[in-house]
């Protein structure tokens, strides 16, 4: 065992208890709580978390900020790891819950409608606890065994939800070690990166003595294929992770070409075709790597016309990727799945588990229409992932991975598609109701109607609205700036008040003419968020606005 | 609320209970267990996991495989997500623990010494549970608040452990929103990728109308800089993730140049210098992106001579990255930290939390000597990560991220450097004892002595050993093949017996002359793994060998 002289674990020194790391203490806290008192503390908090999560969060965690970031920063400036334990285990846990959690953000509050993070079904925490306890590493069969098999099954289930192939297809691939229906990754950014990585390697594949882009790099690949650049096309509402993916992959983020959107924030098909034709005309120099459709834009929740985009991609032979990080689970709602029609024609699809599958942070996934496509990213290594094995790390951006597939597999059994469908329908239906409510209040202007469960609006008081109706272009710009200032201020004051949280973003007109509109952005995914809570949020915004209006602004 | 007619939750049908998803049932299971009976089941298992983790795993999880993968595969071929819930929550949890966990791998067993995954201190599961319950998303201050501040503090602590800058440095940077000491990523693969991404963008930075490699891509960057390829140098024992990183980043994985190792499996410095000189001579065509030193190779646990490599990199002005995914925490042992001397001169360092910090799957980290270096990978987006903000997603490969920093921060307080030091010293000391034991047994040959807590050995019975001493080159090749077959077979049979697990890998001689030696690989990190357990493992291997030897091999 550990070769250290055991010393007394706790030395009383000047009436202050000092903790010392030694073999005995270490073994004790490695295996179990130090004492009965310590065990009681842990039992109390774990019981609160596991069986009263919502009450626990309401009691312990602030919705937003009670204390300024600046002040908080000054409290955490200790940069030395202490040699001996600073605190007993139970005291660290108590500190975490009593002193630190209150300054976290209660993303589970029904008044927190600002981001794509929300309440979890309480059992998600149980499932995560089990996954942590088993501590399997899915990179390799030898450290995961049954989890690898379950992961392949759950990947097949989601693949089927998206692509709807027949029984024979899934029978062939569900447990086939040579094919890959999809892959778990850390988040949507890495899912999008994985999809473009696969597309890049497939397009610039080995040929005539050239060993492929993965082996020789993009510059050599461009020489072998006689091209000067690769481009990726996506609506101007595409997530920033796509720029990052192009940067990482050596394509260059300025080669992500933004396509205009229509009045409903969906990709403008004629502008897409126009761009493709222009780029194809320059085919000797430029090659289109992929067109990306979005199923649920981050800012407005709009869904691109996937079916027509798929047809265009098919016509030109271009990889069609769908970023359904947000919208994917809408496929489980009978009422709304038609909104994603065409997704089954995609070559690859991104879906996030920690968004509308309501899984804990984080779980990204990428799916491939053709289960041989990911062969383009295969790596093997004798000590960890062997050729021809079931080791799931063979075709994956990351190496070591947590067994999140166990959580998704269990949850699908507990919820069924109908359970998820109800959550999705609650969000979209409530968003529609909320949009009507906004339209009826004279202080607000609905900026983007909800297609899914996201909408944007801003403050536009009748006095300014009337002026805008008759203003010149330059006067409109100035009035717009005024509205931006007001909306920005109200959002900030509401956040600081700490009762509720609506996020804000800046919408741009097509063509980047410089006209920017600051808006409130509301994401409705928490089943506890009701229309009456949303009315309260509007009441509070009206109230804040009225107070600003009547008093001079704080400097 | 959700707009569905509530129907009876449980419909009895042909004596079989059928579950139906409806609004009421959904809300109930979203918030709390369905019934007292269900609650009791959850309480029972959660109590076993949280307060009797080691007994729980011993009772519920097999060390390796009782059932063949093939048979297991046939049980998981259901590819349809059922419309209504398949099982009640309590039944899903029971199934997970009683029927699925037994086919996972008990990586916590002291007899599991095959991979870099081991027992966790029991409180890690508590910490993971708290992190899951809070469900913060560290991409952005608005969804993490205090966690962002704590993360910056713990990054500074580990940075200080590695780079040992002075108080003024850490005071300036610990909570500075404009600088970045390090970043949490999913795992070591993505940490290495992040480091090379930063190095790539720094080397091929914007200049004279060129907007930088991140914006324009590698091919355009090569044109702007007048070069034909980038190369990365690492010992031939470098982790496969480095090949993958070069592939992903558009550099090309064949541009990862393997440097020979010496008799102790450490990078051969003269071969390194020779390669650098040759490549520098071709400077108009080739540029060296980075030299990578390894602090704990995956196969043999050896540590490259970091100090001299740092000096060489400094001399030539080359980015020096250290892959300390495995060995980094050795810095917390007073007895052994000298083995990593020179790491403080690195430009970037990878460390894994789920390896020798004993954190649950997964937690990779990358650190930068200069806190401005990561500016080269900055991204902003109005709706999520704002320029100049504390949003930690601004300089990071992934987007959404789990609050793993809370686990590391808490654990450092509970363990202290001395607590971790004791774990590290147990592993290395025990590995040395084990090496002596192997040397004393005539059946075995120690192939690589432990520098850290990893060693390799193989079966080499006296009869073959004597023949080898006098054999010609070609005869040696044949004898070697025989040894490979024997070691491979014994490893397989021991794994299948299910009592213990030692992994195997294939060591190659310098220069890839084709001579491959199959070896057992033993990783000693579990504080419960004692020398007497390791002796039992050798006894079992001797026993298996004797049985194979005396009977015809199974076909």
Care to describe what's here?
The structure is a homodimer of 555-residue chains. Chain A has 555 residues and is an alpha/beta fold. Among the domains of chain A are: 1-31, no CATH class; 188-386, Type I PLP-dependent aspartate aminotransferase-like (Major domain) (Aspartate Aminotransferase, domain 2, 3-Layer(aba) Sandwich); 422-550, Alpha-Beta Complex (Aspartate Aminotransferase, domain 1), CATH 3.90.1150.170. Chain A contains 18 helices and 13 strands. Chain A has helices at residues 23-31, 36-51, 53-60, 69-75, 89-100, 123-134, 146-163, 167-173, 188-203, 213-216, 218-225, 240-248, 269-281, 306-316, 404-440, 462-469, 473-497, 531-550; strands spanning 10-13, 16-19, 182-185, 229-235, 256-259, 286-294, 319-323, 348-352, 364-368, 444-448, 454-459, 503-508, 516-523. A 7-stranded mixed beta sheet of chain A has the order 3-9-8-7-6-4-5, with helices on both faces. The longest helix of chain A is centred in the C-terminal third of the chain and has 37 residues, at 404-440. At the A-B interface, helix 1, helix 2, helix 3, helix 4 and helix 5 of A face helix 1, helix 2, helix 3, helix 4 and helix 5 of B.
With helices defined by DSSP (H or I, 4 residues minimum), what is the helix count of chain A? 18
Largest interface: A-B, 191 and 191 residues
How confident overall, as mean pLDDT of chain A? 92
Poorly predicted tracts of residues of chain A: 1-16, 551-555
Say what the CATH topology of the domain at 188-386 in chain A is.
Aspartate Aminotransferase, domain 2
Please state how the strands of the largest beta sheet of chain A are arranged side by side.
3-9-8-7-6-4-5
Structural class of chain A: alpha/beta
Helix content of chain A: 40-55%
The value of Rg of chain A in angstroms is 27 Å
What oligomerization state is this entry in? homodimer
What is the correct CATH architecture of the domain at 188-386 in chain A? 3-Layer(aba) Sandwich
CATH class of the domain at 188-386 in chain A: Alpha Beta
Number of strands of chain A: 13
Largest sheet of chain A, if any? 7 strands, mixed
Coarse shape of chain A = globular
**Fourth-level CATH superfamily of the domain at 188-386 in chain A:** Type I PLP-dependent aspartate aminotransferase-like (Major domain)
For the termini of chain A, the CA-CA separation is: 64 Å
Strand content of chain A: 5-15%
């Amino acid at each position: 065992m550990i070769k250290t002289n055991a010393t007394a674990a706790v030395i009383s020194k000047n009436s202050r208890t000092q903790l010392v790391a030694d073999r005995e203490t270490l073994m004790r806290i490695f295996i179990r709580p130090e004492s009965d008192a310590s065990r009681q503390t842990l039992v109390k908090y774990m019981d609160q978390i596991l069986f009263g999560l919502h009450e626990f969060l309401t009691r312990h965690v602030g919705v937003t900020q009670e204390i300024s970031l600046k002040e908080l920063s000054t409290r955490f400036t200790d940069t030395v790891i202490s040699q001996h334990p600073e605190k007993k285990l139970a005291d660290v846990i108590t500190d975490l819950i009593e002193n630190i959690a209150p300054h976290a953000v209660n993303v589970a509050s029904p008044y927190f409608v600002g981001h794509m993070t929300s309440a979890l079904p309480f059992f998600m925490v149980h499932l995560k606890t089990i996954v942590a306890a088993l501590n399997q590493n899915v990179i390799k069969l030898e450290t995961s065994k049954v989890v690898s098999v379950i992961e392949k099954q759950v990947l097949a289930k989601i693949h089927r939800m998206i692509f709807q192939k027949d029984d024979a297809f899934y029978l062939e691939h569900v447990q086939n070690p040579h094919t890959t229906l999809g892959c778990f990754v850390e988040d949507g950014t890495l899912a999008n990166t994985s999809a473009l990585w696969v597309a890049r390697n497939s397009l610039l594949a080995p040929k005539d003595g050239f060993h492929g882009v993965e082996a020789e790099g993009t510059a050599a690949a461009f020489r072998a294929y006689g091209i000067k650049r690769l481009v990726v096309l996506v609506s101007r509402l595409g997530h920033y992770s796509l720029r990052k993916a192009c940067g990482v992959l050596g394509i260059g983020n300025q080669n992500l070409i933004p396509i205009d959107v229509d009045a409903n924030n969906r990709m403008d098909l004629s502008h897409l075709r126009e761009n493709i034709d222009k780029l194809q005309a320059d085919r000797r120099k430029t090659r289109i790597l992929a067109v990306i459709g979005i199923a649920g834009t981050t800012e407005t929740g709009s869904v691109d016309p996937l079916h027509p985009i798929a047809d265009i991609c098919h016509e030109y032979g271009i990889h069609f990727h769908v970023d359904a990080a947000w919208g994917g689970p809408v496929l489980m709602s009978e009422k709304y799945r038609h909104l994603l029609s065409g997704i089954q024609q995609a070559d690859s699809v991104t879906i996030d588990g920690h968004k509308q599958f309501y899984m804990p942070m984080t779980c990204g996934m990428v799916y491939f229409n053709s289960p041989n496509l990911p062969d383009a990213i295969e790596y093997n290594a004798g000590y960890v992932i062997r050729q021809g094995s079931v080791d799931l790390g063979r075709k994956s951006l990351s190496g070591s991975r947590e067994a999140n597939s166990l959580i998704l597999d269990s949850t699908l059994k507990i919820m069924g598609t109908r359970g998820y469908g109800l959550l999705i329908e609650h969000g979209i239906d409530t968003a529609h109701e909320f949009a009507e409510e906004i339209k009826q209040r004279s202080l607000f202007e609905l900026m983007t109607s909800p297609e899914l469960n996201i909408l944007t609006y801003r403050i536009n008081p009748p006095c300014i609205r009337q002026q805008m109706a008759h203003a010149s272009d330059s006067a409109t710009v100035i009035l717009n700036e005024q509205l931006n200032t007001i909306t920005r201020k109200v959002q900030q004051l509401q956040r600081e008040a700490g009762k509720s949280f609506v996020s804000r973003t800046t919408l741009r007109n097509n063509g980047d003419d410089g006209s920017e509109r600051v808006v409130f952005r509301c994401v409705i995914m928490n089943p506890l968020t009701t229309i009456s809570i949303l009315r309260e949020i509007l009441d509070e915004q009206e109230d804040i606005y009225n107070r600003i209006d009547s008093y001079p602004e704080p400097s």
